[in-house]
Amino acid sequence: MSTSKDPLVSRRVRLRDVVLAVRDDEAGHRDVNHRFADSLAGRDGSEPEGDAERGKHR
């Protein structure tokens, strides 16, 4: 048995556990990255750029 204090190392971990942990972590990064990109593009995230103009011509 391992003597590590890391809970992922101290117990038997299934690949599914690792995938779920990574997926959860990446979801947080995704949200932060999208907000950052929107702020750089000058958008507040309420409507993608160009959609309002495109809707007028339909």
Main beta-sheet annotation: none
Which value, in Å, is the CA radius of gyration?
A: 21 Å
| DSSP, total strands | 0
Average residue pLDDT: 75
- What is the 3D form? elongated
The H/E string reads HHH
Helix content: 55-70%
Q: How many helices in DSSP terms?
A: 3
Q: What proportion of the residues form beta strands (DSSP E)?
A: under 5%
Which residue ranges are poorly predicted, with pLDDT under 50 across at least 5 consecutive positions? Answer: none
Helix- and strand-based class?
mainly alpha
The first-to-last residue Cα distance is 66 Å
Written overview of the protein:
With 58 residues, the protein is mainly α. The chain has a domain at 11-37. Helices cover 64% and strands 0% of the residues. The protein has helices at residues 7-10, 15-41, 51-56. It is elongated and about 45 Å long.
